[in-house]
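Board work, copied verbatim: Tudor domain-containing protein
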Amino acid sequence: MSISTLENNSKSPTHIATDWNFFLNEVLTERVQITPYYDKEDWKIGEIYSMRVSHIYDPSHFWVVTKHLEMDLLHRYLNDFYSKHNNHYKLPEENLKLNLYCVVYTEGAYYRGILVKIPYMMKKKTWVFVYLLDFGFMSKVLPDNIYFMTKDMYSVKHFAIRACLAGQLLEGAELTVLQASGDADQLIVATALQLSVTEKSVVVSATDTDIFAMLIQRYSSENDVYMLMPGVQDGLGHKLDATQFGWREGFGRLLPVISDDPPAPDSLLKLFRCGCTTGYNQNCWCRRASMPCKSYCARCEGNCTNNEPVVLDDAETDADEDIDDPTM
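↓ predict structure ↓
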């Protein structure tokens, strides 16, 4: 007998009415929140704790699971239960809404999740983006593969915990990594655990506290999902100062730093061709960029009149002289 036949022939669970009423009265009205599965009193300095890295976004945004045995048990139950009763627990599309807790089928398994973007058209299909609570990453699923959870599932805390490498600051965290000399890692762990009684953030030591420490913040998963939304990233360019990549401050504005270094490796520059010939050509891209042809052109190799210096008019010359020597 096929799996689909078993699913269609299975009887609905006796608690399905309780589950559906709880969904309508509590979940849809957003009265329920699944909190992180983390007990800060469990962590002690000097002890070793095993954990599983479930998803890596970047060094300052990744997720770990400390209760991985319990998580494995939960997902074995999820896959067993919903493979038998998925037809009875399928969620109608009219009940789909943002920040809704649900169970989804993706990549061959069932997971708990929260809806973060609906709908999304791609190749004539409507996709729903779901943040997987127990793994900390985003997935897209079809509306037909979304199910409401049993009432008991809401009491199981989500397993994925947001973390970052020591020295990286969690956005919005109230506790920063301390700068210290000597055994800095141990000091970071000790200080943060001491403050964990009153602060929202704690430090967790991994397999070797001399090498690795993580700053973990407890807060609602909605903050994670918006950071992970496709196309929304905190670019490095927003954090860099212009003086760090080729500019200097002068006379109340930014000025380019002149360098004798070539614009790119010779092997790369030889790939470029401009429109010049061995004679003068005003449309030469090298000349328009105020660069000698030998730096760019693979056609004339610099043997053309375009290598003559570009003569600036009087206004431009005066402006440059003012910049170089403001006292003149």
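The CA atoms of residues 124 and 189 lie 51 Å apart.
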